[in-house]
């Protein structure tokens, strides 16, 4: 799974996804006459089958895309608001919402996939869901990353018997043995659910019988999500937020999406000649890490800013002050996750996926979507094959926090699907999973690609780091030990992961476009089961 991948190019379409079977599902739709927006739904639905620990139609996400017919960048936000039924007064810390029925937020993914198809697609829902239905019904051999995830999560979920029974029945069937490479996973109930949605449309979940089944099961487990919460789900088309970096315009979704941290990092780095430094040397990494930490601190301090406040954060004067702060020798200590009274580092349970797709018509899209933690809330709805999200774990419930979430309010989400243009033409779709690390690792990869000139696949393979609250950093141990020692002297509490490649720094997928020739180049992250497929 780990190690360099070949460069894959095509003139007819490209899908870079977190699993080879999902990439093939998207490529199949492209080959049968669908476009990138249809292929996005096919890829996403297939991911629901082949990486259920990260993906579900009951998750949420967002997409940034180039619409060739309109010659513009658009954003589709399918992160629903905090439900009106959310009992905020019951909670005081994030850990209260890590698992179980109360952690479940309204599902946005299905609505997002269907809206992409409605607005710009060419295929029917039957055609889009057909590959996923076949994978769920026939079964598929589990790949390396899936084996790891199932075997890591099974003993943890066994400690929650009220959740484990239905989870085990859905995924383990009659087997109590650990997963091994090639284990055949069949999900006939999920196949049936996808088939019903293909026939009845998304309202089968949001206003129909499937929604009634979901909310009834949650209620039986003590949850509060209602059919009214489901009926309020509506994807939103938004204007993208963009900044210039090395001659490109990099676009991401606007707030309440938290991707503006990524753009603020790029704005800070634009003031430094990184290309003149030793790649992966202490000076290069120190500048990038300090810029990331400054941007993260401001994202937390100004969470979900209004347009005027966001303009002020990204303006030359404000960015100039940040560059000056970066240039001084004082260590930078700041939070990277949510607001907190005291800094702390720790395991981030986020499980997200990102994929990028291009078609022969010139459309280009990057989608980042998630179920939250591994297997989300771990609530599997009997008879449906659906594993529900735990996105209310990303709501801020701390009573003293200035960013405390409220029922019915926007849910700020740490996703950053990006679309870059040059001279008014699309050139790169790039995204990654990783919770609050998403905005960190995308900046690191883009620096490798644009500042140091690495080909896209090599830029994704380059060693990355995950910054935590305070001054803590974990870095892949392919960074030289002497460089790590120098970074400690510069004020970073840095330590290497005990492996050279780790999913803790994301699982990036990207597609680049050469406007002159039309050549599409895909890149997939070897830290997970990422692969590239062409029609």
Automatic annotation (TrEMBL):
Transmembrane domains' residue ranges: none
Gene3D superfamilies according to UniProt: 1.10.246.130, 3.60.20.40
Ranges in coiled-coil conformation: none
UniProt keywords, alphabetically: Hydrolase, Transferase, Zymogen
Source superkingdom: Bacteria
Pfam family, one: G_glu_transpept
GO terms of molecular function: hydrolase activity; transferase activity
SUPFAM superfamilies xrefs: N-terminal nucleophile aminohydrolases (Ntn hydrolases) (SSF56235)
Record flagged with keyword Hydrolase: yes
Keyword rRNA-binding: no
Family of this protein: Belongs to the gamma-glutamyltransferase family.
Protein name listed in UniProt: Gamma-glutamyltranspeptidase
The species this protein was found in: Bosea caraganae
